[in-house]
Design goal:
The structure is a homodimer. Chain A has helices spanning about 15-30, 50-60, 80-90, 110-115, 135-140, 195-205, 245-250, 280-290, 295-300, 305-335, 355-365, 390-405; strands at about 35-40, 100-105, 125-130, 150, 150-155, 155-160, 180, 210-215, 240-245, 260, 265-270, 275, 340, 345-350, 370, 370, 385. With about 400 residues, chain A is an alpha/beta fold. The longest helix of chain A is centred in the last third of the chain and has 27 residues, at about 305-335. The relative contact order of chain A is 0.17. Chains A, B: One of its GO terms (biological process) is lysine biosynthetic process via diaminopimelate, diaminopimelate-aminotransferase pathway.
Chain lengths: ~400, ~400
């Protein structure tokens, strides 16, 4: 019988969101009248910006006429979108990125999952803990880890993000080949100052490592001192790949568009020490395994870079960040230590208790749902994540409830 | 320095379509007045069906209002589309496929490329020759082959599709783990009779092999005796995965939607002989590495199954098949042996000469572009592929030209 990829057997079941759903449903059954507010989910609630809707419709109309119909597009995306990104997200901010270095895709999840295809199966990987599970799970599937034991996969270098290091772990002492970094961080909400990113670029250059930098939440950075791209750090073009998404920025979680920047200077080597362009390898991977993003979706994404699109996107982000401020103040008022919520849509809260226990108490006393930090990794224990992606009235109501219920005493 | 996946180095450059473009451009430079007709490309020319356009617009409007906005959808696709496919493409034709066995994706290219993720790295692969390059290239990248030598990758079982076997190669004598089959075939245009598919199902059951069946062109089958799905063969549910696409059927090459059927009975085993569900593994793979297809695109695809959608899709297919008939008759009139063009949009023509030489003669004498068969594999030498995806007037003009130029003497 055909043999399976046995590395899949090492995967621990991704029970986090299904366990949350199960517990919420159990509570609902015994409390059918309860008005439950979900503050745990990282999905947007505001509709697509009007500029995107307009461009989307226009492109659908192009698909309706033979003269303007579009068949197969370039696997790496249409030049109109790659140019708009290079100008709007990089050159206009003083960062030199060429349109040819940008690859359009259907999601930062796909790209952060697939990029490891390019590395040898024995590449040494470092990831942060707590972490977005895709980075680690895809490396498990590819056989770059040992088994899961005591909350960790063997053979992986974990970088604990904890209050003691302000959620900014130092580069490891040992040499690794590939490092996954995410800032503004999911789930901790921490942001990376310039000198912190510079430490990593220096580490990567010294050890010939590649940094896979997930910047899916960069649009939420409001502090002008915080870099929005790893390429703001000198020397990063040789060692860093950057992942970006329209999901949270422009509400594309259900529309699906993202991009990855692979500078032409990024190199890896083969077993005989010869250099190879990571850009060429990613192009080969994408052109072999992917057929590009839907044309109307690419037109909708390009509208983000029009003046109207920019104004609408900024308004949406401001709305979510006001949600974050409201909820964060309620938490601070109760005496909780919080990270994030200022330059990030996530608020990471130290509960001082088992994170599932806190989840349960919060659900039962306030009918508010959070995400237990333990679900993101061992170092997430003792924390929960709240998300600012919600309607204002729900956030205000959730803030009122926790302030009343927990007033005077943290649970 | 981070080490690369060295299996990428084994890949031969995919020069086929770039070489065609280069030769066409060279010809254009010296013959700027030439009216060149491209009969080689497998991309549709008719616009999206009206029913799809209407549903597409409506879904974009849903994305414009908070009350109807859709964020993250299920990774495996929305139930409305999976149900429509199960009913429209299977149950209504007497084939039992459950909606839960259908996974929606952005393309059959992605799915046929990614499915090999589920098998062990030493799985023995069989592919047809000539072949759609994605099947073999993705297995090369995954390390399941040796080096490329004399037109073949070592370690792969090739199944030559040649006139001697009516382009229907027998299952190999040896045991393989995974077989890629494509019918109606790209590039040969051959279709698989029921008893031929039954041979393969029997082989797969006997050797515990998995058949990866690419049915991207099934909608072009008009002969009621030819199975449109591998699941019409008893016993296939235990051993076959089927890939389908809206690309050629409904003109989605630039809109991007496809699906893969993984029956719940399909199993693989681990090193200790325990069985695992291929359906569960594919779900794990897709939910970890993919975030689903754009919601408006899924709505557009579902409209294919409305009465209007069906009528419009059938009209488009009839248009392309009339193109195929016209061009095929011109070729037959010149004395060429042709496969395909009756239940398939591709016509595979035995040229009797080197396929690049024929390409060049056809370009220079008739200003018609074909695809040299050698580009699809060693057994494609001596053949060229013509595609029916074009506008009627171009096909008629190309047919006229070859009939005039080659009349009385094959080139």
């Amino acid at each position: 019988m055909a043999r399976m990829n046995e590395h899949f057997l090492k995967l621990t079941s991704s029970y986090l969101f299904s366990e949350i759903a199960k517990r919420v449903n159990t509570y609902k059954e015994t409390h059918p009248e309860a008005d439950i507010i979900k503050m745990g989910i990282g999905d947007v609630t505001l509709p697509l910006p009007e500029a995107c809707i307009k461009a989307f419709h226009e492109a659908v109309d192009e698909m309706a006429r033979a003269e303007t119909f579009k068949g197969y597009g370039p696997e790496q995306g249409y030049p109109f979108l790659r140019e708009a990104i290079a100008e709007g997200d990089y050159r206009s901010r003083g960062v030199e990125i060429d349109a040819e270095e940008i690859f359009i895709s259907d999601g930062a999840k796909s790209d952060t999952a697939n990029f490891q295809d390019l590395f040898s199966s024995d590449a040494k990987i470092a990831i942060q803990d707590p972490v977005y599970p895709v980075y680690i799970d895809t490396n498990v599937m590819a056989g770059r880890t040992g088994v899961f034991r005591n909350g960790r996969y063997e053979g992986v270098v974990y970088l604990p993000c904890v209050p003691e290091n302000d959620f900014l772990p130092d580069p490891p002492k040992e040499k690794v080949d590939v490092v996954y970094l995410c800032y503004p961080n999911n789930p901790t909400g921490a942001v990376a100052p310039r000198d912190y990113l510079a430490l990593w670029v220096e580490y990567a250059r010294r050890h010939d490592a590649i940094i896979l930098f997930d910047g899916a939440y960069e649009a939420f950075i409001r502090d002008p001192e915080i870099p929005r791209s790893i390429y703001e750090i000198p020397g990063a073009r040789e060692v860093a790949v950057e992942f970006r998404s329209f999901s949270k920025t422009a509400g594309f979680t259900g529309t699906r568009c993202a991009y990855t920047v692979v500078p032409k200077e990024c190199r890896v080597k083969d077993g005989e020490g010869r250099f190879h362009s990571l850009h060429d390898l990613w192009f080969r991977r994408q052109s072999t395994k992917f057929n590009g993003v839907s044309y109307p979706v690419q037109r909708a994404a390009a509208a983000v870079y029009t003046p109207e699109g920019q104004a609408q996107v900024h308004a949406n982000i401001a709305y979510y960040m006001e949600n974050a401020r409201i909820f964060r103040e309620a938490l601070l008022g109760l005496g909780y230590a919080c990270t994030g919520g200022e330059n990030s849509p996530y608020i990471w809260v130290e509960t001082g208790t088992d994170s599932w226990e806190f989840f349960q108490i919060l659900l039962e006393r306030a009918q508010v749902v959070c995400t237990p930090g333990a679900g993101f990794g061992k170092s997430g224990e003792g924390f929960v994540r709240f998300s600012a992606f919600n309607f204002r009235e729900h956030v205000e109501e959730a803030a009122r409830r926790i302030s009343t219920v927990f007033s005077g005493a943290t649970p």
